[in-house]
Amino acid sequence: LITGQKQYVHSEGMEHLNSKSISTVMVNLNVDRVMCVFAHEYCHNWNVERIRPKTLEPFNFEKSNMSHELWCAEGFTQYYGSLLLVRAGLQNNNSFLATAAGLINAKQNTPGAKYYSPVQASEHAVFVDAAVSIDKNNYANMFTSYYTYGAAIALALDLELQTRYHKTIDAFMQAMWKRFGKTEIPYTVPLMQETLAGISDAKFAADFFSRYINGHEDIDYAGLFAKAGYDIKNPNSGKPTLGIFGDGFGGRGLATPGTNQDKLVIDRNTTKGTAAYEAGLDINDEVLKLDDTEVKKTTDVNNFLKQKKAGDAVAVTYKHRGEEKITTLTLKEQNGVSLIPFEQAGKPVTEEMKKIRSSWFSSNVK
Fold first, then answer.
1. Is the backbone peptide bond immediately before 58 cis, with ω within 30 degrees of 0?
2. Which of 39, 157, 281, 353 has the least C-beta neighbours within 10 A?
C-alpha cells in the first residue's frame, strides 16, 4: 500500500502475479472507495493472477496484448468486490443494491453495452488504457468499460444460475479455478462456455454466450430481479432531458459546458440515443436558444426544463461552425435504475426469493 499527498500519487490498484500495489491519496480520503479497491484486488488473487486469459500471454511490457476476456478478468472481479464487502458486513444490503442498479443502468442505457458485446469491449482495452492509442473521439458511442459491463454480465449470470439451477456464480468461478486456476492453464472464451455448461447444461451455456458474451442482446433484469423479490423502477420517470450539459441524463459520456462561462458549447460527441444526438447536435456546437429562451449557462437549461416534460418538442437555435441554425429536438425521459424491494409495494416475498438474497448478503464462511 502506497499512500501520499503528492501530486504524483493517484488512487489506483494493480495486480501482479505474486503481489499487489494499491496507491491512494490521503487528502479527502474516500474510505468506501478504498475498501472497494482492496476487495477487488483481493479477488484478483484467484481471478487473473491464477485464472488467466490465454490472450494476455505471453506477457510483454513493451507491447499490449488484445484480450477478448477482460469482461470476466476485470468485470467479474468487480462484481465480486461488491459481494465481498456486503458478505463481510463492511457495506449494507442497500449499498449492494445501489451498485447492482448502476450495473443494470450501464448495460441498459449506454451505447457501448447496447450495440457492442463484452468481447468487443475487452478488445478496446489497448486503446482505452492508452497503451496503443489515446484517440477517444466518439468513444461514448462505442465503448462501455469492461469492468462495469463485465460486472453487469456477472450479475445476470448469478441470477440465472440461482433461478435455473439453485447455484450461484460461486459455482462457476470454482469450476474455473479447478480447471484453469489451480492448474495455471490459460482459458479462452470457448473454454469458458464449456466450463459453464459443466455446472449447468450445454444449451443454456451456448445460449448465454451467444446472446450476451459474443452478442449484445438486452438482458431481462426485470424478470431476473423479480425472482429475488425486487422491482426495477426509473427514479427519473417523466423528467425531461436534452442529453447534453449534464441535465440529469446520468453523466456518462455526455457533452458538458465549455470553459467559456458565457456560452454553452458542446465539448464532446453527443451520445447515441439522446435527444441532442437525434436532433443533429454535435461537438463544438454552441446552443443559443431553447424555443424563445436564451441560454448561456446550465442553470438556464435546467430552469427551462422545469417547464417541460418528456415528449415535448423544442426548437433549438445553435451555431454550427459559425453558422446559426435551428433544429427541432424531442425531449426524452431521463434514464435511471432503482431496485425496490417487494415489501415496499406490499408484495409477498417467497422463500426462494429469500434464498437468493441470502446468497448475496450472508457470508459463506463458517
1. yes
2. 353
* Other CB atoms within 10 Å distance of the CB of residue 308: 17
- Could you give the CA distance from residue 209 to residue 162 in angstroms, rounded to a whole number? 17
The b-or-e profile of 267-284 (16+ CB within 10 A means b, else e) is: ebbbbbbbbbbebebbee
CA-CA distance, 61 to 344, in Å (whole number)?
A: 53
Burial class (CB within 10 angstroms; exposed 0-12, middle 13-18, buried 19+) of 130: exposed
Contact (CB, 8 A) for 22 and 41: yes
pLDDT value at 41 more than 50: yes
pLDDT confidence band for 131 (50 / 70 / 90): low
Write out pLDDT tens, residues 196-212. 999 999 999 999 999 99
How far is the C-alpha of 2 from the C-alpha of 23, rounded, in Å?
A: 4
Minimal CA–CA distance to 61: which of 11, 115, 16? 16
